[in-house]
Write a structure and sequence with these properties.
Blueprint: H1 2-21, E1 76-82, E2 89-99, E3 102-109, E4 112-120, E5 124-127, H2 133-140, E6 144-154, E7 157-158, E8 166-179, E9 182-204, E10 207-226, E11 229-244, E12 248-258, E13 261-273
C-alpha cells in the first residue's frame, strides 16, 4: 500500500510539473485572406511601432481581432515538439468555433482531443483554461486531468503590443487528477509573465517568418491531496515564443527542471492553413 501511495504521489507531481512546463497557451493569429505560404522574409529594420490588426482586415474592429492571433473558424496549425519532459510528440491546433466575444481552440494529439476556451475583451485575448497539447498529452498517457479555472486575471495577448511591453496572466485552478485509477484533489495557481523583447527572423519547417519574440516566465504552485497526504508542487520555467503576424505561433523554446532532471524543449510549426 505504501509503495502504491508513493508511486501515485510521484506520478501526480510529475504530471503537474509536465503541465506547467507546457502551460503557456497554444496559439493561432488574426484573420487573414486564405493563405498557407509564409510571409515575406524579415526586413533589416526593427519593428518598434504598435502592432495591431491591419486596417481594413476582415475582422478589423472586432474584439477578437489581434495582429498575432487569426481567430478564423477552421484555421489549423500543426506542431512538433522535441526535448521536453513528455518526449517527442506532434499535435494540431484548430479553431473550431468563433463568437463575438470568444473562441474555442481544439488540440488533436493522436486520437485524443482537448479543447480550450478563450475570451475576447477590449484589453485583449485571454485563455480561460489550462488545455491544449499538454492536457491532451497527459490523457494519452492515461492521466485524466480535470482542473477548472476559478478565477482568471490579465490577458494572454493584449489588443496592442509594443516592443518592450510587459503583461501578466494568472489562473486560479482547482479540481482533480486521476493516475493509475486513483483520484487526487488539486488546487493552486498558474502565473505567466510575458515580455515582448523584439523581432527576429525564424526558420521552421513551415517556412521563414519575421516574428515577434516574446519571453514567458511560468510559475505553478499547486497542492495535490491523496489519502491524507498533501503534496506541494512548484515549478518555474523560462520559455521564448515567436509569433508571426498573420500566421501565429511559429516556434517555442524553453528550459526547465522536472524532479531534478533538466530539459530543453523546442516546438516548431510544421504546416498551417488559415481559410
Amino acid at each position: 500500500m505504501k509503495n502504491r501511495k508513493f508511486k501515485m504521489i510521484m506520478s501526480i507531481q510529475l504530471m503537474l510539473i509536465l503541465l506547467a512546463a507546457c502551460a503557456t497557451p497554444a496559439t493561432p493569429t488574426e484573420p487573414q485572406p486564405t493563405e498557407t505560404q509564409a510571409p515575406p522574409p524579415a526586413t533589416t529594420e526593427p519593428v518598434t511601432e504598435t502592432l495591431a490588426a491591419p486596417e481594413g482586415s476582415p475582422a478589423a474592429g472586432g474584439l477578437c481581432t489581434n495582429a498575432y492571433y487569426p481567430t478564423r473558424s477552421g484555421a489549423t496549425w500543426t506542431y512538433k515538439s522535441t526535448g521536453g519532459p513528455g518526449g517527442e510528440y506532434s499535435f494540431t491546433d484548430t479553431i473550431t468555433a468563433v463568437h463575438s466575444d470568444g473562441f474555442t481552440l481544439s488540440t488533436q494529439i493522436g486520437e485524443l482531443t482537448r479543447t480550450q476556451e478563450w475570451t475576447c475583451t477590449t484589453e485583449g485575448l485571454a485563455a480561460l483554461q489550462l488545455g491544449g497539447a499538454p492536457a491532451a498529452m497527459l490523457n494519452s498517457q492515461n492521466i485524466q486531468l480535470n482542473l477548472d479555472v476559478d478565477n482568471a486575471t490579465g490577458v494572454t495577448f493584449p489588443g496592442q503590443i509594443n516592443i518592450g511591453d510587459q503583461w501578466q496572466q494568472t489562473l486560479d485552478v482547482s479540481g482533480n487528477v486521476t493516475v493509475m485509477n486513483e483520484e487526487a484533489e488539486a488546487a493552486g495557481t498558474a502565473q505567466m509573465n510575458f515580455s515582448a523583447t523584439g523581432n527576429e527572423t525564424v526558420t521552421v519547417p513551415a517556412g521563414t517568418f519575421d516574428a515577434l519574440k516574446v519571453d514567458v516566465d511560468v510559475t505553478l504552485n499547486v497542492n495535490a491531496s491523496y489519502e491524507g497526504i498533501t503534496l506541494p508542487v512548484t515549478f518555474s520555467g523560462d520559455y521564448t515564443y515567436w509569433f508571426a503576424e498573420g500566421v501565429g505561433w511559429v516556434k517555442a523554446s524553453g528550459t526547465g527542471s522536472v524532479l531534478g532532471s533538466s530539459f530543453s524543449e523546442t516546438t516548431e510549426l510544421q504546416s498551417y492553413n488559415i481559410p
